[in-house]
Amino acid sequence: MTSHAFIVTPEHVRIRLEPAGLGSRFLAVVTDFVILVAVGTLLSLVFTTLLPRSVAGLLSVTSMAMLGWGYHVYFEIRHAGRTPGKRMAGLRVVDGRGLPLQPAQSFVRNVARVLDFLPFGYGVGAIASLVDDHHRRLGDVAAGTLVVKERPATLALPRLPRSPRWNSLATPRTRKLLERRLGLEDRELLLELVLRAEQLDAASRFDVMEEAGRIFRERLEIEDEALSGESLLRDLCALTHGSDEREG
User: Fold this and answer.
1) 83: in domain
2) What is the three-class DSSP state of 146?
3) How far apart are CA 211 and CA 228, in angstroms?
4) Do residues 80 and 200 share a domain?
5) What is the pLDDT of residue 164?
6) Same domain, 145 and 189
7) CA–CA separation, 231 vs 211, rounded Å?
8) In which domain, by residue range, is 75 found?
9) Is 15 in the same domain as 67?
10) Structural domain ending residue among the three candidates 149, 180, 207
11) Closest among 41, 127, 34, 140 to 85, alpha carbons compared
12) How confident is the model over 181-196, as a mean pLDDT?
């Protein structure tokens, strides 16, 4: 039976996440490892061909160390929590509260990867994942993150609250960034926040909308400061869920 993690934010927004199992995480790890070895081998051949053996050896070791860490951080930050291996396995890393992954969290979880790898082959990480209810390795626990399964898009969506104004975010640039930088979990989070906004008291509603709006504003490089957090989330939700009518 598939387990789910129900996250309740401080503002009492309940979000369902489905933690990834060990099998799919292993597939992602193996895929990323093969890619890293291939890139590292190519670099080593280049160094060996162009440089003295001693220098080439030092650069090869250094480049592999940098690749092993930087590869994961780069893809997690720039590709909505998904390395190529995670994308192939249908997984992504998210904040433990259901919000998008932050750069500092990616940095922490990947620094801790050294501990998870001990004594070899992610032995400690595998044990930690078996013990933890949400299959988190030590890096996830330290960073407050989860590796979750991508869920298929919802076939039938409830009618969204409509904004009485023209959607200023309905531009080719924003649509392109939405496609590239927001995964299914981000889109579901937008929908969840918009649909549950009216269930929150005024103070909590303002706080959660502004915080979530700030995150999505930075992720999508939106410079329209006139939009409140809630207006921004509603406009993005309209774009991601096919309800972007422009009303005068």
Assistant:
1) yes
2) strand
3) 11
4) no
5) 47
6) no
7) 13
8) 5-149
9) yes
10) 149
11) 34
12) 78
Query: d(Cα 156, Cα 244) in Å, to the nearest integer?
Result: 17
* 159 part of a folded domain: no
Hey, how many other C-beta atoms are within 10 angstroms of the C-beta on 122? 19
Q: Which residues contact 49 (CB under 8 A, 6 or more apart)?
A: none
Are 26 and 127 contained in the same domain? yes
pLDDT of residue 151: 62
Helix axes 22-50, 123-131, angle to 10 degrees: 160
What is d(CA 188, CA 7) in angstroms, rounded to the nearest whole number?
14
Mean pLDDT across 142-167: 62
- For residues 18, 19, 23 and 29, what is the CA-based torsion angle, rounded to 10 degrees? 120
Note whether 135 and 222 are same-domain residues. no
Same-domain check for residues 90 and 192: no
Q: What average pLDDT score do residues 229-234 get?
A: 87
Could you tell me the two tokens for 182? 């927001």
pLDDT bin (cut points 50, 70, 90) of residue 98 is low
122 located within any domain: yes
Average pLDDT over residues 75-95: 89
Under a CB-based contact definition with an 8 Å cutoff, are residues 125 and 116 in contact?
yes
In a domain, 247, yes or no: no
**pLDDT tens digits, one per residue of 20-62:** 888 888 899 999 999 999 998 999 999 999 888 888 888 888 8
Domain count, the chain: 2
Closest of 70, 76, 216, 220 to residue 146, by C-alpha: 76
User: One-letter amino acid identity for 157?
Assistant: L
Nearest Cα neighbor of 95 from 215, 233, 230, 217 is 215
User: What pTM was estimated for this model as a whole?
Assistant: 0.60
